[in-house]
Structures are given as structure tokens and as C-alpha cells.
Design goal:
By secondary structure, this protein is mainly alpha-helical. The chain is 67% helix and 5% strand. The strands form 2 sheets. A two-stranded antiparallel ribbon has the order 1-4.
């Protein structure tokens, strides 16, 4: 509470805890005595969710950053989310076939995590609105993920393919994929947010590279120690490994993560009790959500397709196809980080970055077409070059779209916009896993090119409306 001294005519001001109300008097002003009173008023800085126009924001507020250890902890969480999604891709088809599933079921098993993550976003937002702290929600999501991975590892004992699907659904429900971006939106200033979002996108892509590589390492390890039973083999090892990793992550959260106030992380659902003039522009919002959905769909479609074409068309083993996918994702991650540092210097507008990225994506699809090359090495090289370009550009589009979605809405809607943005991403992830499982070398490139083409049209249609809100923070 701040103390304000106000000089008034005696009896002309009625005091209250929050406001002052003038009262008309008929007495002569000449006979009124002047007094000084101390009025307690709430400090304008007391509420962390107070909306301040960007024009009036200070330079320190625009460039604010959270504690380094806390930011690193949530960014590491995004890496784990990526690893947990893709570590089963090289072995999913074999595991589902072993328990009676088919090729489409293998794709559904991969897509179950992002599809159920849409409901998980609603779950963690519900917990935050009920007063739980971000630290508590991170721990609860990690506990659920540990249980899901253990269930995945012991699914062979049940000899039921539905146990696999149930395990992946639990992992998706407790994924918490939206929490790192929400933390960035709440703690990083406007001038640094695009930069940090690029780091988030690059680290998430790094997780997609580490997942297949770890699957290959676990495959080699299990075979080297001659362990192959229903509890531990190359199919179940990813579940046990990720359960252990998330247990270690919970210890990291308890030790180094500095929690945010509950008032900062809790928010109302998008559109509820919000004035019409505070709602984000509809066309720009839909375009940003499409960009996020499309970038995630292309990412997962490419991951599933690469493993499928390597094992079914080129005759590669699980290890070879997993390492090939890991190398592609690693190159894309490095490329995204480099492109992010360059574009934040030379391209200050998120909407321009979205348009340029989608146009370049259309051109990058050229090497993905089927050229009827006979040598497997030539096919793999051409597909690899095309996918590195495409995955780098969808990472660029995802980062720009995430940054834009947090800027076109006022501060009071930032958390809700983040939730809907990640619903779009998880929807694209789930759809991409199913699409990738049914594509062939003849249909892969046209489908990806079509997604980029729609993105170009969306960027053109929304370009004039995708501007930062004056009430964004």
C-alpha cells in the first residue's frame, strides 16, 4: 500500500479504501478550512498481471529475464518432452506388431502422446487456476510421466496392444508441453522473447534428435548385455530409461527452480470476462495457430516417414534408421539455432519472418520428390538434404508463430493464448504421426508442399493484422 498526501477543502472529500468521491457543499468556500489527509491506495505495481501499454513500458521491463537456473530448468523440460515423444519411433512398429497391432496402430501409438497432450494442457491450466504453483504442476506432470513410461515398459507382460496405447495416453496427458512456453511468456520481456523462443524451439528440436539416438544406444546396450525378455528388451528399454530421467528431473526442479507467484500463472480461459476491445484479432490468431499446427505436423510426419522408408524400402535396421533420423534432427536443431540468431538481428518483425519462412519452405520441398534413383545412398542423401532444410524452416516458423501469438494478445490473455497455441501444436503432432505412417515416397513431397502452400496464403492474409497489442507485455 502506498501513502498519498492530498490537500482538500474540509468535508469536500469522502474517503474509502480504494477511491475518493467528490461531494457538493453549499457552504461558502471562504469559510472552509484547509486540511491535509493521508490516504492509503493500492500500489500500481502490486499486481503482476496489471496491463501496461507497451508505449509506457520501461527498457528494463522490455528486456527482463528470469533467473538463469529456472529458465534452464524449463528449457530442459522442453528437451525431455521432445525425447519422450520420439524415442519410441524406431521401435514402435516392432513393439505393436509383437503384441498384435498393425502399421496404422503403430502410428496411432506415436500420435497418442500429442493428441492426449491437448487434454493435458487443459488439466495443467485447471490446476494452475486452482492455485497450484508452477513448480507443483511440473512435479505432478513428471510423476504422471514416470508412471506412463513404466506402464509402457511392462506392457509386454500383459500381451495386449491396448496396454501400449494406454501408456502413451498417460504420457500425453502428463506431457506439460505448454509449460516452458508459458514460463517464457510470463517472465521474458518483449524485446528478448523472440530470441528465447528460438532457443526453446531449437532445444525442442534437439530433443527430437536425441530421442532416436538414445533408442539406437539402448538397442545396442540391450543386445550387448544379452538381455531379451518381456521386462527388458530393445522395445521396453525406452520406457525404463525415460522413467529414470524424469525422476532425476524432479530432483532438479526441487533443488534449483524458483517458483512464480500463483497470481501470475493463474488465468481465466480465453474469451471469458474479456472486453471486446481486448480480444486478439481473429484472423491473426487463426493464422498463428495454423502456423503452429502445420510446423508440428510436418515435423512428426517427417520423423515417422524417415523411419518407415528406411526400414521398409531401404532395408535398414532399427539402429541404422534411428541414427539417420537422429542425425537429421541434430542438423536441423543446429540450423534452427543459427537461423534464429541471425533472423532476430536482421528481421525484427515476426509476421515478416513467417511469410519468408513459409516461402522458403515451399522451395525446400524440391529435394523431397521421388526422382527414381536406384542407389539407396543417393536416395538417402537427397532426402536428408531436403529434410534438414524443411525441418529447419518449420522450426523457424514455429518460433516466430509462438512469439507472435504471445504479442498479439493483451497481458491478461497471455497464458490462455499460450495454452491454445500448444493445443494447435499438439494437434499437428498427433495428425503428423498418423499421416507419416501411411505416406509413400510418391505422396510424401506433395503433402508437405501443400502444407507450406496453405501457410503462405495464411501469412499473406494475416500480414496486416498480425501486430503486437498495445497492452501486450
Amino acid at each position: 500500500m502506498a501513502t498519498v498526501t492530498v490537500t482538500t477543502l474540509e468535508g469536500s472529500i469522502v474517503e474509502s479504501a480504494h477511491q475518493t468521491t467528490p461531494v457538493s457543499r453549499t457552504a461558502s468556500v471562504a469559510h472552509s478550512s484547509v486540511t491535509s489527509r493521508h490516504i492509503s491506495t493500492p500500489s500500481l505495481a502490486a499486481s503482476p498481471l496489471s496491463s501496461r501499454p507497451r508505449k509506457g513500458a520501461s527498457a528494463d521491463d522490455e528486456s527482463r529475464m528470469p533467473p538463469t537456473c529456472s529458465l534452464a530448468t524449463v528449457l530442459y523440460f522442453s528437451v525431455l518432452c521432445g525425447v519422450n515423444l520420439v524415442i519410441v519411433i524406431p521401435t514402435a512398429d516392432d513393439y505393436s506388431h509383437r503384441l498384435g497391432g498393425d502399421q496404422l496402430f503403430g502410428g496411432l501409438m506415436i500420435g497418442a502422446v500429442p493428441l492426449l497432450a491437448m487434454f493435458g494442457i487443459g488439466l495443467n491450466q485447471f490446476l494452475l487456476r486452482r492455485g497450484l504453483s508452477l513448480k507443483t504442476v511440473l512435479l505432478l506432470m513428471s510423476i504422471g510421466t514416470v508412471l506412463g513410461n513404466v506402464l509402457y515398459a511392462v506392457a509386454g507382460l500383459t500381451r495386449s496392444v491396448w496396454s501400449l496405447l494406454a501408456a502413451r495416453c498417460v504420457i500425453g496427458l502428463c506431457n506439460g508441453f505448454n509449460l516452458p512456453s508459458m514460463y517464457i511468456g510470463l517472465t521474458v520481456g518483449m524485446s528478448r522473447r523472440s530470441e528465447v523462443t528460438f532457443y526453446f524451439s531449437a532445444l525442442n528440436t534437439l530433443g527430437y534428435a536425441l530421442g532416436p539416438a538414445l533408442a539406437a544406444v539402448l538397442e545396442v546396450f540391450v543386445k550387448s548385455v544379452h538381455v531379451n525378455n518381456l521386462v527388458l528388451d530393445s522395445d521396453t528399454a525406452p520406457g525404463w530409461f525415460m522413467a529414470l530421467i524424469y525422476l532425476l528431473y524432479m530432483a532438479q526442479v526441487l533443488l534449483v527452480f524458483e517458483d512464480l507467484p500463483a497470481e501470475l500463472t493463474g488465468s481465466e480461459p480465453l474469451g471469458k470476462n474479456v472486453a471486446t476491445d481486448e480480444r486478439p484479432p481473429m484472423i491473426a490468431t487463426c493464422a498463428a495457430f495454423w502456423d503452429l499446427c502445420m510446423s508440428s505436423a510436418v515435423n512428426t510426419t517427417a520423423e515417422v516417414y524417415v523411419v518407415k522408408v528406411g526400414q521398409r524400402y531401404w532395408g535398414w535396421s532399427i539402429v541404422t534408421s534411428a541414427l539417420f533420423l537422429a542425425a537429421l534432427m541434430l542438423c536441423a536443431s543446429i540450423s534452427s539455432a543459427v537461423m534464429g540468431s541471425l533472423t532476430t538481428r536482421f528481421m525484427k518483425s515476426d509476421r515478416t519472418g513467417l511469410l519468408v519462412g513459409s516461402l522458403l519452405g515451399c522451395a525446400a520441398c524440391a529435394p523431397l520428390f521421388h526422382f527414381d534413383l536406384h542407389a539407396v545412398s543417393a536416395q538417402a542423401a537427397l532426402l536428408g538434404v531436403g529434410l534438414v532444410l524443411v525441418l529447419s524452416l518449420v522450426g523457424l516458423i514455429r518460433a516466430f508463430a509462438l512469439a507472435a501469438s504471445s504479442k498479439i494478445a493483451p497481458a491478461s490473455l497471455k497464458s490462455s493464448m499460450n495454452s491454445w497455441a500448444f493445443v494447435s501444436m499438439t494437434l499437428g503432432r498427433g495428425a503428423g504421426a498418423i499421416i507419416g505412417s501411411v505416406l509413400s515416397p510418391l505422396s510424401f513431397a506433395p503433402v508437405v508442399l501443400g502444407m507450406f502452400g496453405v501457410t503462405v496464403l495464411a501469412s499473406i492474409a494475416s500480414h496486416s493484422r498480425m501486430k503486437p497489442s498495445d497492452k501486450a507485455s
